[in-house]
Amino acid sequence: MTKTDWRIGVAGLGTVGAGLLNFLSERPDFAPAGGRASVTGVSARSRSRPRPFDISNLPWFDDPVALAASPDNDLFVELIGGSDGPAKAAVEAALNLGKPVVTANKALIAEHGAELAALAEAKGAPLLFEAAVMGGTPAVKMVREALVGDEVKSVAGILNGTCNYILTEMEAGGRAFADVLAEAQRLGYAEADPTMDVGGFDAAHKISILAALAFGCAPHYAAAEIEGIDQVALLDIQLAKDLGYKIKLIASADRSPEGVLVRVHPSLVAQNHPLAQAGGALNALFIESARVGRIFVQGPGAGSGPTAAAVAADIADVMTGAQRPVFQKPATTLSPFTPVDPAKSMSRAYLRFLVKDEPGVIAAVSETLAEAGVSIESFLQKPVENAEGVPIVLTTHAVAESVLTTAIDRIAGLPAVLERPRLLRIARI
Ligand SMILES: NC(=O)c1ccc[n+]([C@@H]2O[C@H](COP(=O)([O-])OP(=O)(O)OC[C@H]3O[C@@H](n4cnc5c(N)ncnc54)[C@H](OP(=O)(O)O)[C@@H]3O)[C@@H](O)[C@H]2O)c1
After folding, report:
1. CATH number at residue 164
2. To test ligand 1's pocket by mutation, which of 15, 23, 304 has the most ligand atoms within 8 angstroms of CB?
3. What is the pLDDT of residues 321-332, one digit of tens each?
4. Which partner for 276 in 246, 256, 305, 377 could form a disulfide, CB atoms 3.0-4.6 Å apart?
5. Separation of 314 CA from ligand 1 center, angstroms?
6. Domains contained in the chain, number
7. Residue 355 sits in a domain of what CATH number?
């Protein structure tokens, strides 16, 4: 007999938890398969904290693991966050009992996804995480389910709204990174400790999950190459604009016969590319596949309402009874993640040098690049008033990262070069 009434335990009553409780109290019968979803237990750190909804009638659990194991709920929703600690312990407790789990926790799935998938599948319990990537904008189900009949070659996206907001504001207002970050923190767009966002780690969690879903391998966060936006200078944003590009934090996953390359970098994106058009706090994803071709999706990647909508969609899937492997294939058959050596990866590059304003400098830089095997595509020199040196900017044709690094090391040693050259990749999309 099909189960109709679902009792849900919710651990974590912050931004996403609040959105979910509000939604379920307004629309308990939202699931397309019919039936009702009602919250029968909650857990958070502080019971007395004021919340935007009434929890006085809901059974309270100090310990989220006890809530996960409680026989008074048959679906556990984890909205605490963090790759380890109470979130992981609670998810494991629920799965060990064969209880379906829905989570928005990208850190948990990116870092422990393979072992949790193995546990979930061994116990026959769904483990769903649509909200973990791009919040309410569909990404996980699209890659895992809608594209299963295709062969995804690459996935690249803007997966962190805070970084996108900061870069957009830097360009629009001609303001420095630190200035915009401080404002974003005041407005609540950035955390008090912004490291996970601006350091690129949050985007790396999300792209590690997408890589696993797209390529049928186990997620392997530790293999991601990560650079954040904290070193992006306003000058680079302005020079990139003169060259026809915007600087975006691009998280990408590429598959080749050698393996998978997962990276997060501030990258130059051609101004007319759809990813360059996604401004403010928007997220966007660009997928290239063998049969469908190019796919682009854009939308909010965070926020109480949008993220809770994705959690609710997963709850609806559980209520429908649909069950499939946690990743693209059963956990026991996921391919091992074979990382590609980033030094061998080929990309076009943007290089900025700060040089003394004297004859022969440009020739010396060009010769050093040519000797190292780097071929110049375009060149821009801009006088900057009252500056200590003159910035010169080059874009290169596609070149191996190792060749580029050698060339940069040599140029940094030239007497007329005032600081280590700045390297930014030009996105391969
Ligand atoms: N915010 C978004 O827009 C968004 C988007 C996509 C995915 N996510 C993911 O969703 C999850 C939740 O994010 P959020 O923004 O809602 O976080 P949040 O606002 O910081 O809320 C976290 C909640 O977890 C509770 N909590 C913390 N430690 C706990 C513990 N030891 N035991 C029980 N409860 C504990 C907190 O309790 P108190 O309220 O008592 O402090 C709070 O209610 C994270 O994995 C996040 O990455 C968030």
Report:
1. 3.30.360.10
2. 15
3. 988 999 989 999
4. 246
5. 18
6. 3
7. 3.30.70.260
